[in-house]
């Protein structure tokens, strides 16, 4: 079935980087854009950015410009989101989601905790 | 950036009642590119409505969306116990994509 399986929880220190993966199955990964969205504890959804099907083009929210990199590997049908210079307020659940416009399939989320 | 404001923040209703959730945009949402998602505790969001009024695959017909321009509405005609959740609107007509802050639908 169509699904996105994300990597496991991470605990990082301030200033470190984290790389979250999102493995797709059940659909032609190379034909779909992928989004990343995060949700801080008890808060709403925040759009981070999008990567095109080939991985050649990305678009990031201004809040994350310079700190985020989205990539993808067609050979393994996996998308990646790397966030650097982590701060305590980056503690959140990070979701990948399929789609160019609306997001119709979501991963279950990856918890990232930033703590000294 | 288009700011989406949802109201009310919390809606308290009983099963069987009708729910009306509002999403107002700070600028016109082009081409009606507005979606609604449902999120239950500990779960990922689930797409309900796209293009302002189109139900996603597998979504019951008690869910309906309407609106255009800057004002959009999600209506749940008769609430079922599983409908009590948080609902988010999302515009994808311009970058950056943005979400509303959410409406919590709770059991009265």
Draw up the topology in text:
The complex is a heterodimer of chains A (116) and B (108).
Chain A: E1 3-6, E2 10-12, E3 18-25, E4 34-39, E5 45-51, E6 58-60, E7 68-73, E8 78-83, E9 92-98, E10 105-106, E11 110-114
Parallel strand pairs in A: 2-11
Antiparallel strand pairs in A: 1-3, 3-8, 4-5, 4-9, 5-6, 7-8, 9-10, 9-11
Chain B: E1 4-7, E2 10-13, E3 19-25, E4 34-39, E5 46-50, E6 54-55, E7 63-68, E8 71-76, E9 86-91, E10 98-99, E11 103-107
Overview of this protein structure:
The complex is a heterodimer of chains A (about 120) and B (about 110). Chain A has about 120 residues and is mainly β. Chain A has no helices and eleven strands. Chain A has strands at about 5, 10, 20-25, 35-40, 45-50, 60, 70-75, 80-85, 90-100, 105, 110-115. In chain A, β5 (about 45-50) and β6 (about 60) form a beta hairpin. Chain B has strands at about 5, 10-15, 20-25, 35-40, 45-50, 55, 65-70, 70-75, 85-90, 100, 105. Chain B starts with a strand and ends with a strand. In chain B, the strands form two sheets. In chain B, strands 2, 4, 5, 6, 9, 10 and 11 form a seven-stranded mixed sheet that branches. A four-stranded antiparallel sheet of chain B has the order 1-3-8-7, with no helix packed on it. With about 110 residues, chain B is mainly beta. Chains A and B meet through β5 of A and β5 and β10 of B.
Compact overview of the structure:
Chain A has 116 residues and is mainly beta.
Query: Beta-strand level of the residues of chain B, as a percent range?
Result: over 45%
Secondary structure: number of strands of chain B: 11
* Rg of chain B: 13 Å
- C-alpha geometry of chain A: globular
Helices and strands of chain B, in order, run as EEEEEEEEEEE
Global mean pLDDT of chain A: 97
Low-pLDDT residue intervals, each spanning 5 or more residues of chain A:
none
Keywords:
heterodimer, A: 116 residues, mainly beta, seven-stranded mixed sheet, globular, B: mainly beta, four-stranded antiparallel sheet
